[in-house]
Amino acid sequence: MRINISQKKVRDQFVAKVEELSGQKILACYQCGKCSAGCPAVSEMDILPNQVIRYIQLGLKDELLKSNSYWVCASCLTCNARCPKGIKIAEVMEGVRQILLRKRKDRIHIPKLTDKQKEEVPQIALISSFRKYTS
Amino acid sequence: MKISYYPGCTLKANAKNFEDSALCSLKQLGLEVEELRRWNCCGTVYSLATDDLIHHIAPIRNLIFSKEAKSEALMTLCAMCYNTLKRANERIKKSRDDRDIINRFMDAEGLAYEGDVKVLHLLELLRDEIKFENVAKKVVKPLKNLKVASYYGCLLVRPKEIGLDDVENPRVLENLMTALGADPVDFPYKTECCASYQTVDNPGIVAERTYRILTSAQRAGADVVSVSCPLCAFNLDNRQKETVNLYSDFKKMPILYFTQLLGIALGCPEEALRFDLHGVDPKPALKQKGLL
Lengths: 135, 292
Ligand code: SF4
Ligand code: SF4
Fold this sequence. Notes:
The complex is a heterodimer of chains A (135) and B (292).
Chain A: H1 7-10, H2 13-22, H3 34-37, H4 49-57, H5 61-66, H6 69-72, H7 78-82, H8 89-101, H9 115-120, H10 123-133
Chain B: E1 3-6, H1 16-28, E2 34-35, H2 57-68, E3 73-76, H3 79-94, H4 96-105, E4 118-121, H5 122-130, H6 132-137, E5 147-150, H7 172-179, E6 183-185, H8 203-219, E7 224-227, H9 230-238, H10 240-246, E8 255-257, H11 258-265, H12 283-288
Parallel strand pairs in B: 1-2, 1-3, 3-4, 5-6, 5-7, 7-8
The complex binds iron/sulfur cluster (2 copies).
């Protein structure tokens, strides 16, 4: 994949917004890959958690938003517990989700869920899913 | 210490087996807890965004209700409720600004809240207040020869600041099982995520996780897996249907709440253990060990 990097992208307000919503300093990451090594959801992710951080460092907003990784993240907090730089990757994922959700770009649409989907799972699954995936 | 009990939504429905077995066990131990007269859903997940205060209102409101009931602590059984309530509580303890905004928002409650109610999980109550050695003294039916793999999942132990045991290698559930006379088995997937809320729109990933977690427990020799979260329970138990479709070598196994095992050991009647609410019937495995 060909990636264009520019100062304009790096200084884009997207990067600042992710930092603000997550409370994390994205540049602190030195790309060791520990977060991805322990992540239970990587088999379903287009790009790995450390790559999510890298894309944000480089201001690759469009490329990042095209991936499914921040939606597939299950907020299990394993990466947070293990990052040697103390970065809370799960918070970064939440920041990216929030940027979209606050523009009403929801991941799931409740009316489109089938009765079977709604009936078979417990309340706790529905509420947590709606909290993470709808605005 | 006066303790209020917060059930949370799922314990009144799908996870009735969790609630009934826990309340019966507490009774056998001579401890009464009173359910909060008024409570609401805690929201299930703690918002990880810096500014999302509105999502901390629900857990804090429950803590206000506890304070109104003059309780020093609020006890939960569900790992997700525990995590959400405790994190929200810690947040407003630390941040005066957040506390003021939240209190102003809920001025109709007529009580300023400062984070002064303690959030407690049943496991902490058993370990730190009642103590496992006293639980062991009340055992009438030891869980002899039952090999139990204890699954913690994420939210009992992470993040470290609020977790109730070591973040990478918790032992509290195993220690409880030892007190009940069972054989705890250790397995490397005990704190690995079950894929949580993905179960609604992506059950395949949950089935995949279930395969990894349960085959790991089976390799360690477990007869049953015990859990402390209704979402983990649903994913590991009910999603085994999908797991079988994905992996032909997969053998189903029973998933129980740790309180059901506690209840058996303390002599609770079968009506309080509600084995009818399981995807995979745990009775054959328990009968085989002479526990039913
Ligand atoms: S573990 Fe931390 S430092 Fe290492 S790649 Fe992940 S975010 Fe960066
Ligand atoms: S919180 Fe998300 S990114 Fe981090 S390990 Fe868990 S699933 Fe992976």
